[in-house]
Structures are given as structure tokens and as C-alpha cells.
Design goal:
It comes from Nesterenkonia aerolata. The chain has 333 residues and is an alpha+beta fold. It contains 14 helices and 14 strands. β12 and β13 form a beta hairpin. The longest helix has 17 residues.
Length: 333
């Protein structure tokens, strides 16, 4: 499954660098824009006022060619422009849940207040309603750039978020950080982070509140989980005392040909668990699922299909269905 970036963040992070970016009022004045002109442009809408002292100059055109070029470009959304303006000067870094949205580790909409971390020593940024300020010691490894905006790395972002989330939510985010992406959908071929990088980020964070809970979540993280429901289902199996399943491991025939990849598999009992979400209602996907089931049965595996209806009450219905399948194959737990 691909990361579901907010469309605003996608447009913001891939726009050409010469598109005007969100800037502080002081920056605009110091670079030659008179105060009276700034006020006039804000009044007529050629410069957007994002928040107190923060602006987004819009592209200008003086010829038909420039107009045509501008129409082909995608200016940053107001949300991304605001993030640009907040971090344009000084050492401030986008962090926590806001960085998680940028990295695709959260499906939350990109809306204020935005999380901004200021390095120690020094005070945190204070803009009620616009910024949630943090102070932290950030190493060089903890900060990267996304189109010129300083953002905490995926590993550090996970560490910051997991320390403030329930354990299961930190586990879901860890699985999403370390999973192998789908290059044809996501435009990248490597994970956002490795388990070792998540562990190192926790070490650099030090004995902060919530780190112990984040480390517990990391202990349950597994490479291969494609979606949050798969992670939640796997953790429900753990709590229920089921054997630990393999995650998206290929089942092959005698010639090494991949037959199917169950979301969660119990090879010892030949039980394959598949979580079928909304995309599986597509007619083409239905036919593919039928072929998958036929291949599963031909190899002597028993397939357990889990849907969202099985995930309520901490996935108790899904656990019961899987337990019945395992017991029918000899499991005595």
C-alpha cells in the first residue's frame, strides 16, 4: 500500500523551487519590499497574509509567456507556505505530527497548529493557534530538508511521536516507517527508516518521557506490514497468545515461483490471513482475490479473510476467526 500523503503536502514538496515561498514580514522588508507596497499587495491579494507577520507572495507575470508558465506551475498551498514562513529564518525545525504528515507517516490533514521544534539552548516558538512549540537537542542526523524546509528525519519524527502516543499507535507508525515501499506508486524504493535508525533516534532522544513506551513499540515492529490494520491485527494476535505470524512472506512452489504473499501467515499450520479493505471491492481486485484463494487452496493452505467488520472490540472477532482456523490445523494453544 502506498503512503497516503495529504494532497497539499504532495503539491508543496514537489513544486519548482522558483515558485515564491512563505516568508516572514521582516524577510520581505529586508529584501527590498517597502512596507507600503506590502500592505497594498496584501489588501489586493497579490500577497497572501498567512498569519501575523507571515506572508506568501504570489507569482507575478509581465508577459504572455510568463502567464503561460505560471499557469503550468503549482504554487504552494497556504498550509505549506505557512510552514515555510515559520522555518525560513533561524534554527527552527518542523517536527512531531506535522513532520509525520510530510513524511507520509500520518494521514491527518496538514492544518495548524503546526509542531515546530527549537534547539536548546533557547526558547521555543510561541504562536497560539498557529504553532505548538517544542524545545529539544537535535543532532545533525535528526534533521533533513524537504524542498528547503528543515524537518526532523523520519526516524526522529517517529521517536518524537511514539513517545507521546499510545503504544499500539507508535507500533503502527514504526511499521509504516520501516516497510518496503511500492516504487510504482510512491516514487521511492527504500524504506523511510530502518529498525536500527529508529533505535538510534530513541537513544539520541535520551531519557525523555515516553521513550520507554516507544521502545516497547519498536520491539514489536516488523518489516513487511503494508497497512495499519495489518499491524493492529498482528498485535491483537500477540495479546491473544497466538503464535507470531510471518509478515508478507512469499509462499513459493517447488520451482521457486511465488504463488501468493499472505498479509500474515502461519507456515507451520498453513493458515494464511488476509486483511481485505475497501480496495478489494473493485471488480478487478475481486478476480485477483479469487485467483489468490484458488492458489492458496491448491497448496493446501487455509485462507482467513478479515475485513473492517472483524476489527471492532480490539479485533476480537478477527482473533476468534483465526483461532478457529489454527485449531482446525492442529494448533493447541
Amino acid at each position: 500500500m502506498p503512503n497516503r500523503f495529504s494532497s497539499e503536502i504532495i503539491h508543496a514538496t514537489d513544486h519548482p523551487p522558483h515558485i515564491p515561498a512563505g516568508r516572514r514580514r521582516r524577510h520581505l522588508l529586508e529584501n527590498g519590499l517597502p512596507e507600503t507596497r506590502l500592505r497594498r499587495e496584501a489588501a489586493v491579494g497579490t500577497t497572501l497574509r498567512l498569519a501575523h507577520g507571515l506572508y506568501l507572495p504570489l507569482p507575478r507575470a509581465e508577459s504572455a509567456e510568463e502567464i503561460e508558465k505560471i499557469l503550468r506551475l503549482r504554487p504552494p498551498s497556504p498550509e505549506w507556505a505557512l510552514v515555510q514562513a515559520l522555518t525560513a529564518e533561524g534554527p527552527h525545525v518542523v517536527s512531531h505530527q506535522t513532520a509525520a504528515i510530510i513524511h507520509g507517516l500520518s494521514d491527518a490533514p496538514p492544518a495548524p497548529p503546526f509542531h515546530i521544534t527549537s534547539p536548546r539552548p533557547g526558547g521555543q516558538m510561541r504562536r497560539p493557534g498557529v504553532v505548538v512549540g517544542h524545545r529539544s537537542a537535535l543532532s545533525q542526523e535528526d534533521v533533513i530538508e524537504v524542498n528547503g524546509v528543515r524537518v526532523t528525519s523520519p526516524a526522529r519524527t517517529w521517536a518524537d511521536c511514539a513517545a507521546n502516543l499510545p503504544m499500539i499507535d507508535g507500533l503502527v507508525m514504526a511499521d509504516q516507517a520501516i516497510r518496503h515501499p511500492w516504487p510504482e506508486w510512491e516514487g521511492r524504493s527504500v524504506p523511510l527508516a530502518t529498525p536500527a535508525e529508529l533505535e538510534q533516534a530513541l537513544r539520541r532522544k535520551g531519557p525523555a518521557r515516553g521513550v520507554r513506551r516507544a521502545r516497547e513499540a519498536l520491539g514489536f515492529a516488523r518489516v513487511g506490514a503494508d497497512s495499519p490494520p495489518e499491524t493492529r491485527l498482528r498485535y491483537a494476535f500477540h495479546l491473544a497468545g497466538l503464535p507470531e505470524p510471518d509478515v508478507n512472506v512469499a509462499v513459493v512452489d517447488d520451482h521457486g515461483r511465488v504463488l501468493f504473499r499472505p498479509d500474515l501467515g502461519f507456515p507451520q499450520y498453513k493458515v494464511a490471513v488476509q486483511y481485505d479493505g475497501a480496495p478489494h471491492s473493485d471488480p478487478l481486485r475481486i478476480r485477483k482475490d479469487v485467483r489468490r484463494q484458488e492458489a492458496t487452496e491448491e497448496e493446501g493452505w487455509l485462507q482467513v479473510v478479515i475485513t473492517a467488520d472483524h476489527m471492532h472490540s480490539a479485533a476480537a472477532p478477527a482473533v476468534r476467526k483465526t483461532v478457529r482456523a489454527l485449531r482446525s490445523r492442529g494448533w493447541e494453544g
